[in-house]
Amino acid sequence: MIKADDCSLDPSALRSVEERARALLNRAEVWDRFPTPIEDILAAANLRVEKKCLQDADGFMAYLAGKAAHIATKAAETLSAVKSALTKVFGIYDPGDSIIHIDDTVSGSKQNFLKLHETGHHELPAHRKMFRFFQDCEQTLAPEVADLFEREANNFARFALFQGGAFSAMAADCPLLIKTPMKLATKFGASIYASAREFARTNHRDCLVVVLNRAEYINGAGMRASVRRIEPSPSFRAKFPIPTDEWITLDHPLGRLLPRHGQRMVKPTSLAMRDLNGQRQECIAESFDTTHNIIILLYPQKALTTTTVILPAGFKQAGNF
Ligand SMILES: [Zn+2]
Q1: Inter-CA distances, 294 with 28, 226, 249, 259, 289, Å
Q2: Which end of the chain is more exposed for a tag (fewer CB within 10 A), N or C?
Q3: What DSSP letter does each residue of 148-177 carry, written as one string?
Q4: 10-residue averages of pLDDT along the chain (321 residues)
Q5: Ligand 1 midpoint to CA 117 (Å)
Q6: Cα-to-chain-centroid distance, residue 200
Q7: Residues with Cβ < 8 Å from 43, sequence gap 6 or more?
Q8: How far is the CA of 119 from the centre of ligand 1 (A)?
């Protein structure tokens, strides 16, 4: 299933989140230092990090050791709610002790994003206040507030990790290839997943990033992968319909982009898409398997080529892909 939107904010909310992130980056003096020095940012925020496995009840309860009983009860409730939703907790912000707890079983680059996300909760005054209140009283955050806070903290983390517009400025000088967000991921200390999303969202060229969950084999149905995220660049969104497919199977036009036989990458492959005017556009797509996700980058190609034509038959929106 395509994941719920985790980053859209109205322009004024986005501006105030970015102002806070910018102020912290100034205090930490990290601009133009690569990879983005996460430890310096945490030090400037006066936050300490504790690493532990949060993926099991024992790990979560270990975190609660020493906490007041009523908080433990609330957090345990959160845990069971979280578990029933099959969502995982990877980071926790504890405003009382200015500590963030980060799951150390996930990759270092993902930990970087999580640390900055939790730092966002600490640095955004409304968050810190509300998290304190949540700890002091037996109140839980209303779901819509919690959802807004998550989107704000994600944008805080994006801004800090990619140093404002530094990522998109570098991407603009690099070729439109899947290797570009991969290279920039290493440069900034970001995951390929976060980097590919940022690449599409901030790109001045037409491009689309489709993130798939790991492919699976279904008896009788063959290989398939569910769509996790679809990120168009602003100009792509203005010209092309945004696909809504939830699954990519081998007979889907993007099926050829599923890496097979131990491949990590699928080389640039031609396909055709109809734009919003119904015009056929020749496109190139390539993919990379991060082992957690398959990242597909698709972009229109100006010059005509003698490429395989992809028939749109059988799609929810005929003409897409
Ligand atoms: Zn959060």
Answers
A1: 34, 10, 13, 8, 4
A2: N
A3: HHHHHHHHHHHHHHTTTTHHHHHHHTS-SS
A4: 85 97 98 98 96 64 55 50 51 86 90 95 92 66 84 96 98 97 98 98 97 92 93 96 93 93 93 93 96 96 59 43 46
A5: 6
A6: 11
A7: 28
A8: 9
* Separation of CA 50 and ligand 1 centre (Å): 16
Q: Which residue has the tokens 């900034």?
A: 188
Task: Give the Cα separation of 20 and 99 in Å (integer).
Answer: 19
- State the pTM of this model: 0.85
With beta carbons less than 8 A apart as the criterion, state whether 60 and 103 touch.
no
Tokens describing residue 22: 């910018």
- 210 φ, ψ (degrees, to nearest 5): -115, 120
**Residue the block writes with tokens 């990290």:** 30
Which residue, 139, 117, 102, is CA-closest to 41?
117
Helices (H) and strands (E) in the chain, counts: 11, 10
Residue 154 Cα to ligand 1 middle (Å): 8
Q: Which of 144, 136, 39 is nearest to 94 (CA)?
A: 136
